Amino acid sequence: MGMALEGIRVLDFTIWQQGPVATQALADMGAEVIKIEERVGGDPGRGLIWRSDQTVLATYFECHNRNKRGITLDLRKDRGKEVLYRLVERSDVFVQNLRPGVVERLGVDYPALSKINPRLIYASATGWGSKGPDARKPSFDVLAQGRGGMLSVSGEPDEPPPLIQVNGGADWVGAMVLAYGIMVALFNRERTGRGQEVEVSLLGSQTWYGQLGFQRYLFSGKAPRRVSRNALGNPVYNIYQAGDEKWIVLAMLQSQRHWANFCKAIGREELENDPRFNSIESRRENAAELTSLLDAHFLTKPRAEWMKRLEEVDIPCAAVQDYEDLAHDPQVLANDYIVDFDHPVAGAVKLVGIPVKLSETPGSIRMPAPEWGQHNMEVLIEIAGYSIEEVARFMEEEVI
């Protein structure tokens, strides 16, 4: 059996992270994704490299663009538009995340492309939405984290919020919402035969992602604030440092259900019936005292010992892992959340796997991120239908 999105062709005219991650999610499930980059400059994400990167592969670009073929195209030239329009005729989805106004100037906005292909799903990823006074302002992941409210509830109350969530939390949430929107539109097209425009913004995705706190404000008029871990209403829904300086997180949301077993597991049976802590209400009233007591107690043994004791009585808990820990986590390995891949440049490497598991049509990692313009010849000949001579002229005219 083929892959779930086999037969769906996506034109990916996106840069940086939000758009490329969304189209990669579709590619992982079998969609044919063609990444279109500017002939001069390309995706600026190619140039973003951290000190910790491997010498051969640039993590940022590689992990956002696997399973895609890549071409370069100068859309400022009429011949470049001609090429794109021919690809649009033969495609199902067009995705772009340029600032509002750019696609209109280039002649690749929804009204223009939907005339060429009325069945086209045209997906736009913006920063702040297409309407309103700030629609044309520049946007980046951390700006959306700030404006979308997430930084206001992150960190300790008397300290500055952590300004950069290094993995791009806003971009990745926005990407998943964008991929979801594209899939909904494709499903509707199967029913109606009609294409449509899909719009997703970083700001809108952040309001949705943070809706538990945001909805609380909309209902009550009281904005959630940062709360110190020493003052949480439920001290057994918290993090604690063990004696080896490693951290453990407890998640006893139903704290009374687990309280007796928890006290026995940590060797503090006397706390079970202590009037300061023996009920949900008393633990809330004396949260700072109990948190301080547990802080001192967890420092008496290494994390592995605490994990063993707690797991034996089914206490909800987990180690706070760094990425080195995660790479060796047996659950990660058992579920193929890391996979082996033979990279044509770097050789044998490990890649983050696909989190969605389909029993009949599973996704797969088939190709690395494309080199700049790597597939110009094959895409323009195989898909757009140009001859070798025509493609050669495009190269001479600096169209591709």
Question: What's the structural blueprint in terms of helices and strands?
Answer:
Elements: E1 9-13, H1 18-28, E2 32-38, H2 59-62, E3 68-73, H3 78-89, E4 93-96, H4 102-106, H5 110-116, E5 121-126, H6 141-147, H7 169-192, E6 196-201, H8 202-209, H9 211-220, E7 239-241, E8 247-250, H10 255-265, H11 280-285, H12 287-298, H13 303-312, E9 317-319, H14 323-327, H15 330-334, E10 338-343, E11 347-352, H16 376-382, H17 388-396
Parallel strand pairs: 1-2, 1-4, 2-3, 4-5, 5-6
Antiparallel strand pairs: 7-8, 8-9, 10-11
What is the averaged pLDDT score? 95
Distance between the termini: 36 Å
Radius of gyration equals 26 Å
Query: Order of strands in the sheet with the most strands?
Result: 3-2-1-4-5-6
- Assess the beta-strand content as a share of residues: 5-15%
Oligomer: single chain
- Please trace the helix and strand order, writing H or E for each element: EHEHEHEHHEHHEHHEEHHHHEHHEEHH
CATH topology of the largest domain: the name is Rossmann fold
Q: Identify the overall geometry.
A: elongated
Which structural class matches the secondary elements?
alpha/beta
Provide a descriptive summary of the structure in words.
The chain is α/β, with parallel strands linked by helices and about 400 residues long. It folds into two domains: about 10-210 and about 355-395, Rossmann fold (3-Layer(aba) Sandwich); about 230-325, 2-Layer Sandwich (formyl-coa transferase, domain 3), CATH 3.30.1540.10. The protein contains 17 helices and eleven strands. The chain has helices spanning about 20-30, 60, 80-90, 100-105, 110-115, 140-145, 170-190, 200-210, 210-220, 255-265, 280-285, 285-300, 305-310, 325, 330-335, 375-380, 390-395, and strands spanning about 10-15, 30-40, 70-75, 95, 120-125, 195-200, 240, 245-250, 315-320, 340-345, 345-350. It has a six-stranded parallel β-sheet, with helices on both faces. A three-stranded antiparallel β-sheet has the order 7-8-9, with helices on one face. Helix 1 links the parallel strand 1 (about 10-15) and strand 2 (about 30-40). Helix 1 crosses helix 7 and helix 7 packs across helix 8. The chain starts with 8 loop residues before the first strand and ends with a helix. The model has no long low-confidence stretch (mean pLDDT about 95).
